[in-house]
């Protein structure tokens, strides 16, 4: 056996080792990404079910922003209404931003996206009034997530579940129902002051 053959075999073996190491690195990165997604999911779910968030969400649902006094209270910096609105809005703004930039997996975070999109219906009057008064795009990421969800620009589905299972437990219409809520929340005519600036 000549030195050229030995050198060629050595190069071939080095290439195989490099290929195996590359595959192992890709698998480790994939595992790390999944681990990070799960950590984020549990952290977000913990936030959604925290007593502070649940109280804020319930308070937000009880407010009528069509009443000018209520809308003023929602915007007043030190009011309880403002604190509750901001707890809900800031929470979903952070989550929506990560989803809009593709950091969070859309299939895994589908229920959270649906909740954020339907919550936009409650936050929208406050956000538009705040934008009008302060000329800043408060919670634009929530609005964009609701928009993507409403017009089908996102792949929010129930793909992991078999069709017969969805039919059996009665969730076959879930994506359409959530998208419908988001569509209704987003597609309503924005206030004239906001519409003229857009």
- The structural class is mainly alpha
- Output mean pLDDT: 80
Shape: elongated
| Radius of gyration, CA atoms, in whole angstroms | 24 Å
Describe this structure in words.
The chain has helices at 3-48, 51-62, 68-75, 80-100, 110-134, 140-151, 163-169, 174-187, 192-197. Helix 2 (51-62) crosses helix 4 (80-100) and helix 4 packs across helix 6 (140-151). It has one domain (31-197). The protein starts with a helix and ends with a helix. The protein is mostly helical.
What's this model, at a glance?
This protein has 198 residues and is mainly α.
Write the layout of secondary structure elements.
Blueprint lengths: L2 H46 L2 H12 L5 H8 L4 H21 L9 H25 L5 H12 L11 H7 L4 H14 L4 H6 L1
Helix pairs in contact: 2-4, 3-4, 4-5, 4-6, 5-6, 5-8, 6-8
Which key phrases capture this entry?
elongated, 9 helices, disordered C terminus, 198 residues, 76% helix, 0% strand, mainly alpha
């Amino acid at each position: 056996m000549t030195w050229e053959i030995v050198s060629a075999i050595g190069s071939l073996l080095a290439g195989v080792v490099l290929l195996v190491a590359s595959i192992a690195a890709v698998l480790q990165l994939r595992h790390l990404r999944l681990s990070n997604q799960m950590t984020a999911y549990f952290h977000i779910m913990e936030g959604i079910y925290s007593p502070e968030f649940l109280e804020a969400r319930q308070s937000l649902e009880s407010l009528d922003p069509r009443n000018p006094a209520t809308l003023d209270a929602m915007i007043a910096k030190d009011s309880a209404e403002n604190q509750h609105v901001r707890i809900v809005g800031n929470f979903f703004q952070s989550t929506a931003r990560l989803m809009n930039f593709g950091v969070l997996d859309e299939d895994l975070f589908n229920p959270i996206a649906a909740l954020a999109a339907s919550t936009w219906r409650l936050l929208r009057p406050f956000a538009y009034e705040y934008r009008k008064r302060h000329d800043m795009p408060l919670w634009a990421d929530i609005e964009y997530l609701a928009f993507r969800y409403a017009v089908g620009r996102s792949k929010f589905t129930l793909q992991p579940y078999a069709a017969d299972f969805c039919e059996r437990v009665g969730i076959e219409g879930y994506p359409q129902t959530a998208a419908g809520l988001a569509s209704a929340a987003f597609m309503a005519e924005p206030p004239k002051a906001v519409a003229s600036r857009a």
